[in-house]
Amino acid sequence: MRSSGSMGAAIPMWWSALLFLATLLSTASTVYAKDEPTIKVKQLKSPPNNPNYFPGSNVVLFQEAESPRTVWRSTDGGASWDKAEGIDHDKSIALVMHKYDPNRAYVLTIGNVHWKTADKGKTWEKFYTDAFTSDFAETFGNWMAFHAGDPDKILFTGMECEGFFCEERTMYTTDGFETKAKSLRRQTQGCWWAKSSPVFTTGDSDLDATRVICIVRAGLFSPQYENRLYISDSYFKTLDGGDALDEKEAKLNGDGPVPGIVSLVEVKKFLLAATASPKSAELALFVTDDTKTWHRAIFPQDHRLLEAAYTVLESTNYSIQIDVRSSKRTSAPMGTLLTSNSNGTYFTRNIEHTNRNQQAYVDFEKVTGIQGVFLVNQVDNWEEVEKGAPKKMKTLITFDDGRTFEAIKTDDDNIHLHSITEPQNTGPVFSSPAPGLVMGNGNHGKHLKDYWESDLYVSDDAGKTWIKGLKGPHKYEFGDQGSILLAVEDSKKVDVQEIKYSLDHGKEWKTTKLPDDLRILPWTLTTIQDSTSLKFILTAKTGSKESPSYCVVSIDFEGLHEDTCKESDMEKWYARKNDDGTSGCVMGHTQEFTRRKKDAKCFIKKEFKGPVPETSKCDCSDADFECDFNFVQDGDECKLAGPILASKKDCTTDDPEERFKGSSGWRLIPGNMCKRTDGDQKDKQKEWKCSDAKPRPGNSSGEISVTYTRFKGDFDRFEKHYLERGELTRLDDETIIARPEQIFGGAGDIFITHDHGKTWDTPEELKDKDILAIVTHTYVKDMAFFLTTTKKVYYTTDGGKSIDSFEAKVPLDRQSTSSPLAFHPNQPEWLIWHGLKCLRDNECHLEASLSTDRGDNWHTIKRYVDRCEFTGSKAYKFRKNSQILCSARTHESNDVDNNPLQLLYMDDFSSYEFTPALEHITRFATMAEFIVVATENTTEGTLSALASLDGTTYAHAHFPLNFQVPPQNAYTVLDSSTHAVNLFVATEVEKSRRYGSILKSNSNGTSYVMSISGVNADDGWWVDFEKMLGLEGVVLVNTVANQDSDSEPKNLQTRISHNDGAQWSFLPPPQKDIEGKPYSCSSREGDAFCALHLHGFTERVDRGKTYSSESAIGLMFGIGNVGPILGNAKDADTFMTQDAGLSWKEVKKGSWTWSFGDQGSIVVLAQRNAKTKSISYSLDRGVTWQDKEFHDSEVFITDITTLRSGSSRNFLLWGQNGKELFTINLDFSGLADRSCVHDETDPDKSDYELWSPEHPLQPNGCLFGHRNRYLRKKKDRTCFNEKNLELVYDFETCECTRQDYECDYNYELDNHNYCTLVDGLRPEDPEQVCRDDPEAIEYYERTGLRRIPLTTCKGGTFDPDNVFRSYPCPGHEEEFKKKHSVSGVAIFFAVVVPIALAAFAGWWVYHNWQGKFGQIRLGEQSSLDNDSPWIKYPVVVVSAVVAVISTLPLVASSVWRTASSAFTKLSGRGGSGGRYSWIRSSGPRRFTTRDSFARGRGDYAIVDEDEGELLGDDSDDEIEGNR
Fold first, then answer.
1. Phi, psi for 1400 (deg, rounded to 5)
2. Label partner for 1013 (CA 20 to 30 A): which of 40, 276, 1079, 1407?
3. What are the distances in angstroms from CA 1139 to CA 1136, 1159, 1174, 1251?
4. 8 A C-beta contact, residue 782 and residue 725
5. Separation of alpha carbons 688 and 690, rounded Å
């Protein structure tokens, strides 16, 4: 089976080809007479992996697949075998052959010590990689990357672990591992040499020698759409001894980088990078032929590129061939074959409805050595397949690289062959380097039948004509350049007793029995790569089912013919022959080969020397041209099917009559070598109008356009869903699904718009359907599901352009308020369905079913279930990507008594078996990397919270000891996207009086400290808690000021935190209102008596509404009032901030709703709960406002919306005029016709400015240990943002300060903002760390502080080395001393010199401070001012030291005691010991790096609209969502 080179299918080549294999039993050899091949059999107890030949030799290696995983070596093509010497076979896990050196191979272990050979396995020696072999799924089988020009240069992908967490680390060697491998880069997701292919070059030999390209993860928990592509020519060396690396980000988009790198693949002279974006399954593909200049690959308009839905095929030096899945039904995938132009940029369609499988392999194979010839399998009944019918396939062949296709025939009957999607052997399916020889298993008839009904067919003219060779399916190989055709009958049983061979191109076949009545079930049949050898190797299973054994069979044809072929035994063979027998043209040239005549009685016997063709060019003809990009063939013409391509210098105005020279519709087939003749050619350019090249702008009026749509029927509100496009999509559609409905009645038809509400249509498939609910995919925003009252579910995967359907196993539960569907974050096709299974009347239970093909097939996974959820994710390496968690009854019964809920997990779909993790749970919730579970102790009547990262091992949440949780209370998991769980715990449960405390966890979710108490909640336990989008750590809450009062309504006050809840303050009120009048109270910074207070989440009708937008950095809106407490919403006014909440101003009287567009450049306000006919908008971030009338009479506006990403310039008003509902599209694109430009060299010229948020408690503006700068459009520029702006433009790392720490477990902030121990408690014994981990070297004394998980600060007075003083664990004093020892010279410079300098400074100050100490003078300027940095900063440092000392004793950060055992369980590496042991934690883990923040919201996970989940509330209240 040939690897497809798929970037969409994440299946390593050698692993997917792995057959079960391994140990030695005995050797039995039988030699046959000269008229038969020599056969030798080596018997094994366990199956062997595929044999690996050293190119150009008969030396072969294979490895056993089971312990002891012995590596075997043969020097005679498999006739005899010996154990490879010098290897600890029981430690080996993989055999890797050097890709470019024919003498080298490597045996890897799970550790950091491996073996290598440079003499074809004769001798082996150890080499060291420091990093341990990675076991990440994406890396498995792809551990080593080889330089195509220098065999000594190798990249090794390993991993390093600290405690529970592991991340990838790439090592490199430039001397073939003669010395220990060096570290290349951490946080990688694959690294490659730029020179990964012999034909690829950067154009610079120096760069070819050293350039490395790496996919870099943004952080330990980051999703793939935050990955970056970095290039280095110095092995990522550090700059100036700091943390910065000598690297540059690849400018994939021409003038800038693109985030979201999914994969990188080398295809001949091209490198391809695939990128993903959030909210979409669509990918973008970027191509380069030198790593310097990249182009986006452009596909025909009707072909979207989806992850796991496209396959990069075996391509040529002159073009790339890709198959893109085009079918909607994933259980029966079909594709379209596309071929690029010569620079890999523009792709045209070759053939549609190609056969694919669910692993993204495609029935496509080139005929080896013959240019332009390949075979494909096409689905003939594709329309029926889309409706659920089985595939009917036919085989086609092309001789002009895909321009035209024809059937393959034997006599006059079509035949069809099994191909790549049904691999039955290793290597190419049909052909080999033997000139023109092709074999395949297939059948006569109209369509391809089952494999076991096939026969073996042979062609000796590159697939033009075929003959039937053998009956039944066979494994087959070619030898001696096609002189030998060898076949072994395939079988389902151990019953094959013979081999078959032909010496005349398949006309006649001979049979040879296997020795000693051996019966086998054949697995693989192979020979050397160039098919020039007379020797073959067959692997097989023998023995019985109860007692299986295995064997390796050597088949040698040496001596079968004594003669070596002479010139008279050879013939000229033409790749294409004309009717007159002369050489015909293929791809613009002729190809002639010399090969043995089929009836010659000789062997060529030229091992390792393949045939070389002779070529000559042909004159160009019509056959050498094909339809160009965005043209489709219609008879003899190529008709335009999309925009014609214009160069950058053409069509620079909006004049539709402007003309330019463009494609004729034809292009020379890439790689075609034909000779141009005199006169016009088919690809001569023609004249086009610019209107053919680009669409007219939607609004070029220079004004805001208004489009009104009326919806018929008696309705009073809309249900609406935005299907956001991906950031990388080239489509301009802005899709909304809407349905008018009545609050207490039915609903109308479903309407879909693709132009943001300018036009609406009802899909034909959804008309008159009883749609109960609309559910959008949580992670892929262009997917939506329309649920009916039956088992039928309609859905769209392309933003409503097409509608499909599936049937669930059971209907949904109409009484439930929860969605019946659960989605996987990385696998859009994986679904969990919760439906109601009724056995008898009134005896129903909830049943969970799993589909991995978007509803085509279902499998019941759990009955009597409460809820199931996908918890696996590619972002979290510490748990399986396929993991599912379920809460279900212990016994399959609806009886609640003695039948508590269990928490169960399943890591593997193959068995569909769950393992219990916890008993007596109430509910579980997932948020970012955390899984939080509430359990109930029925005996004591208490409620407990537990947390997990791997989904299998759970640790109790430790709350401060003075914080008790009554059993009737509830937990709500809040947005926890900053490596800490924010857990709301109810402390007041009386209705209309509910509030609670927010506790914040450490990095594993187990140890909690108080963040803030008295936080407001409503009767459904929704919480007034909201994070500012786009900025780290800015959080707003509403707290209850009168917690002691039972008689009066809650008095709420708004509080804000700028460091993720470590410290809180009031919102500073504006000094005057919009009319210039002062408020009734004033305060400069906000306090308990006067501050700005905003109505929060609990009062919103639309839970999806937020204060802010991720793209409008620093902007927030809210409605509220200035005063001591929050007033009535009816009396509220509208306020905004431009600086992330540091200052506020009133922008409108009354209550207005807001929406952000063009990434914060447009802000639109609409008045709520009042009649109006105009909106107010600002183009300068709220400095000035203008009004726009949208209707001739006043109407009620209920909402204003736009894309949640804030990237659109269209807004939609939703309103009511009497009993009539309407929408109004407001298109702002006419206000700016120029895209903004950022000029890094000239800030004044640039349309953008750099803005950095300030921290109110830190004058240097640092937040979480770094200062980010964001790119924002200048307020006075009239332009629009054509590209999505990077969230973080650049950053700088800050020194650690108090603000980078929060109170530790059992410590709380006192009135002086110090962390003090909870009353009545004694500090925990810090030496407990040593007792919990006997191998720990040191422990830290407690300070009352712990480092905020999100911070990246380094150095400073609050550096961990200064704050956390360490002591040796008992028995580890020598190790501790060695680790922390300091030389005498260092002591001298660290102690003596500073003291001397301090003494001198003191003397100088004493003698130069004007008037000496104690003197006071007025009217004179001191020569050394108190505010001088020379005095001020040392004083600050001394104060900081005193403050630290005053908080002693120090306290070590909490340790999750189960982490070590959990990791051992996950890795399967427990007890490896010695030099193969795993890296142990050396201290507190920091989960973020500088890389995290250089790339946007690094380490952040997706958080949907429902930002929290409720745990433990067993009241009768229905909880519709979670916050």
1. -65, -40
2. 1079
3. 9, 15, 28, 9
4. yes
5. 6
Which pLDDT tens digit goes with each residue over 1353-1374? 888 877 655 566 678 888 888 8
Q: Which of 378-392, 483-497, 980-994 has the lowest mean pLDDT?
A: 980-994
Pairing of strands 1509-1511, 865-870: unpaired
The residue among 538, 544, 508, 534 whose CA lies nearest residue 526 is 538
Q: Going by C-beta distance under 8 Å and a sequence separation of 6 or more, which residues neighbour residue 711? A: 740, 748, 751, 1220, 1221, 1222, 1223
User: Are 1165 and 1147 a contacting pair, CB within 8 Å?
Assistant: yes
pTM beyond cutoff 0.70? yes
Confidence of residue 1251 (pLDDT cuts 50, 70, 90): confident
Other C-beta atoms lying within 10 Å of the C-beta of residue 1313: 9
Residues 507, 23: Cα–Cα separation, whole Å: 40
* CA within 13 Å, CB half, 904: 25
Question: In this predicted model, what pLDDT tens digit does every residue of 805-859 receive, in sequence order?
Answer: 999 999 999 888 889 999 999 899 999 999 999 987 778 999 999 999 999 999 9
Contact (Cβ atoms closer than 8 angstroms) between residue 1136 and residue 1144: yes
CA 720 – CA 1396 distance, rounded (Å): 73
Report how far residue 1262's alpha carbon sits from residue 1297's, in angstroms, rounded to the nearest whole number. 9
pLDDT of residue 10: 34
In sequence order, the 6+-apart residues with CB closer than 8 A to the CB of 867 are: 818, 822, 834, 886, 887, 923, 924
- Do 1281 and 1161 touch, CB atoms closer than 8 A? yes
Q: What is the 3-state secondary structure (H, E, C) of 576-634?
A: CECCCCCECCECCEEEEEEEECCCCCCECCCCCCCCCCEEEECECCHHHEEECCCEEEE
Q: Which of 51-60, 529-538, 665-674 has the lowest mean pLDDT?
A: 665-674
Residue type, 28: A
Q: Report DSSP letters for 314-335, one per residue.
A: S--SS--EEEEE--S-TTS-EE
Q: For residue 1055, give the H/E element and its range.
A: strand 1052-1057
Q: E-strand spans in 928-967?
A: 930-937, 942-948, 955-956
Give the separation between CA 1512 and CA 922, rounded to whole angstroms. 5
Dihedral-angle region of residue 630 (phi above 0 means left; psi in -120 to 50 means alpha; beta otherwise): left
Tokens of 1407: 């003698």
CA atoms within 13 A on the CB side of 158: 27
Q: Which residues have a Cβ under 8 Å from the Cβ of 1254 and sit 6 or more positions away?
A: 1139, 1140, 1142, 1261
Q: How far from the centroid of its chain's Cα atoms is residue 1223's Cα?
A: 37
SS3 1435: helix
Hey, which residues does 245 pair with through a beta bridge?
238
Residues 6+ positions from 1291 with CB-CB distance below 8 Å? 1266, 1267, 1268, 1269, 1490, 1493, 1494
DSSP-derived letter for residue 968 is T
Q: Please state, in angstroms and rounded to a whole number, the distance separating the CA atoms of residues 1478 and 330.
A: 41
Distance (Å, rounded) from C-alpha 532 to C-alpha 517?
Answer: 30
Q: What is the largest CA-CA distance in the chain?
A: 120
pLDDT of 978 reads 66
pLDDT, mean over the chain: 82
Beta bridge partners of 699: none
> ∠ CA(866), CA(825), CA(984), 5° rounding?
55
**Helical ranges in 1299-1392 per DSSP H:** 1328-1332, 1360-1363, 1373-1380, 1384-1387
Cα–Cα distance for residue pair 658/561, rounded to 1 Å: 74
Rounded Cα gap, residues 850 and 832, in angstroms = 5
pLDDT at 965: 60
- Structure tokens given for 836: 């109601």
Q: Is residue 386 classed as helix, strand or coil in its secondary structure? A: helix
HSE, side-chain direction, 13 A CA sphere, residue 855: 24
